[in-house]
Design a protein that fits this description.
The chain has helices spanning 2-10, 36-39, 45-50, 96-112, 126-132, 145-153, 175-180, 196-200, 209-214, 220-226, 231-241, 263-273, 294-309, 324-331, 389-419, 425-434, 451-460, 466-488; strands at residues 67-74, 114-121, 140-142, 157-158, 182-183, 186-187, 203-208, 257-260, 279-281, 287-289, 313-314, 335-341, 355-358, 372-373, 380-383, 437-438. By secondary structure, the chain is α/β, with parallel strands linked by helices. A hairpin with a 5-residue loop joins strand 9 (279-281) and strand 10. It is globular. The N and C termini lie far apart (51 Å). Helix content is 40%, strand content 12%.
């Protein structure tokens, strides 16, 4: 089981963020892989589970003479959603993840004769202010991916290749996400087993089992398992339960809905599920807007049609996350499907009716596999004020290695037994979801270009004119690349 968990969560089973279809701009050089839905490379879970996985870091012996390794971590936790961003724990308290982090850090501390302290901040700009002032108070900053990109653009952090003892080929690094987190061949940030937030931010669908039974519907598990879980099948099920149950001739929060979601996540989730991207990269590993390509437009049109023309979605623009109204409707057995990040699921521990968990559907049955959105990353960054990169990279590498050995199995077990599962089928669904995660820049580090800047507004306003948004999105990405191109030794002519 331990080998299986590590293979699943750490080895990087999906090659993400590749080119998706033909660009409408013929000047953009494409990857050879034209159809994402047919060309993502995967490793079977059975092969990964059966293989011997060496989780050792091969760092040898070092003595850091009681050095205090200092971490600054940005957090935006709320009582409703507890994303595990913290990298340190100061005491055992009986919580599986807290105690696993505590034990991991003490093991690495004892191994190299040093200590770890962490300061939590709710100011995302805190690291930049310190670094610009030449303040070397912290060895690493645990930032959001978007803010890490900003720091890199301003030459305020070291890239991964500058950290001698970081070995991204090791299985405790997330190979698929890290393949995505490059620009022009430069690995500006990396993520893996130490970043529990990465797993918390995995997208999935909950379905209400009571409504499945009440309407004599086939279990979505059956469709997922036989490969027929598609947009059309999901739409058919959503339409069958959407009802004006109080008879007042209007659909609102008092009625019954097929789909519940924050408007920001709908387009990114269905785009990724179909094997497309908002932002892709060309053969030179340079990003460009790909949501305007022909197949992506088909997916976009289908998504709008499902949500608005079929009127199965309860629109609520009051929340940046999962709306409370959506949580209430689902908990009250008046919503069939609820889109969320896995970190939200503990809110449903007291729900009377049972629910199941499944991945997003395929666009159609011609698509070879399912894909699930990795909605956020919060990686470490090493500031240019750091005076000992060897020591820092050794500590980081050891923490990722030890995380894969001890923290990840606890996390996965906790998810299966307490945070997620109410049935045995959910375990295999989680395996499928975690083995097919995709990171899209337009949903994560450049969300202000894609998800938040345009797509969420389009969805809530039923504005389907993506063609009118593409020029502005292209302008925004070119503005970003005019800075980054100098860092990677590339020009921006490919965007002209």
């Amino acid at each position: 089981m331990k080998k299986f968990v590590i293979a699943l969560l750490c080895a990087g089973l999906l090659c993400t963020f590749v080119s998706c279809g033909q660009s409408n701009d013929t000047s953009v050089k494409q990857n050879d892989n034209k159809n994402t839905s047919d060309t993502y490379e995967t490793t079977s879970l059975s092969e990964s589970a059966e293989s011997e996985i060496d989780l050792n870091d091969d760092l040898g012996t070092h003595d850091f003479q009681k050095y205090n390794f200092k971490i600054s971590t940005f957090s935006w936790n709320t009582p409703a959603v507890l994303i595990t961003t913290e990298l340190n724990s100061t005491e055992l308290n009986g919580d599986a993840i807290n105690d696993a982090i505590f034990n991991r850090n003490r093991t690495v501390e004892n191994r190299f004769n040093f200590s770890i302290t962490e300061e939590i901040t709710f100011d995302a700009t805190f690291g930049r202010t310190n670094i610009l002032a030449g303040d070397d108070s912290f060895d690493i900053y645990n930032n959001s991916g978007e803010w890490a990109l900003t720091l890199w653009k301003e030459n305020l952090i070291y890239t991964i290749d500058q950290l001698k003892y970081i070995d991204l080929t090791k299985p405790y690094w997330d190979h698929s996400a890290n393949q995505a987190l490059t620009i022009g061949g430069v690995q500006f940030i990396a993520t893996g087993a130490m970043n529990i937030s990465e797993y918390d931010y995995t997208s999935a669908l909950l379905f209400n089992k009571k409504l499945i039974e009440d309407y004599s519907l086939e279990s979505p598990y059956e469709y997922v398992n036989d490969g027929t879980w598609t947009f059309d099948k999901m739409l058919e099920m959503m339409k069958s339960v959407t009802r004006d149950i109080n008879g007042d001739s209007k659909m609102d929060a008092n009625d019954q809905w097929g789909f519940l979601s924050n408007q920001r996540n709908i387009i990114p989730s269905f785009i990724v599920a179909a094997g497309e991207n908002i932002i892709s990269k060309n053969e030179d590993d340079l990003p460009y807007i790909s949501i305007g390509e022909s197949r992506a437009i088909d997916v976009l049109d289908k998504t709008f049609s499902m949500m608005w023309d079929s009127a199965v979605w309860y629109p609520d623009a009051d929340s940046a996350n999962v709306p409370q109204s959506a949580i209430d409707i689902f908990s009250d057995d008046r919503g069939l499907f609820l889109e969320l990040y896995l970190a939200y699921i503990p809110q449903f521990r007291d729900m009377d009716s049972d629910f199941g968990i499944i991945p997003y559907p395929k666009y159609d049955e011609n698509q070879k596999q399912y894909y699930s959105k990795l909605g956020w990353v919060q990686p470490f960054t090493v500031p240019i004020t750091n005076k000992d990169l060897d020591r820092t990279s050794i500590i980081i590498e050891a923490l990722y290695s030890e995380s894969a050995k001890t923290v990840i199995p606890e996390y996965y077990d906790k998810m299966l037994k307490t945070k997620v599962s109410r049935d045995t089928e959910s375990a295999s669904m989680l395996d499928l979801i975690f083995s097919s995660r995709v990171l899209d820049y337009g949903d994560t580090v450049w969300s202000f270009i894609g998800r938040d800047g345009h797509l969420g507004v389009m969805m809530i306003n039923n504005d389907r004119n993506i063609a009118s948004k593409i020029p502005e999105m292209q302008k925004m990405i070119k503005s970003e690349m005019e800075i980054i191109s100098e860092l990677v030794g590339k020009d921006t002519s490919y965007l002209d």
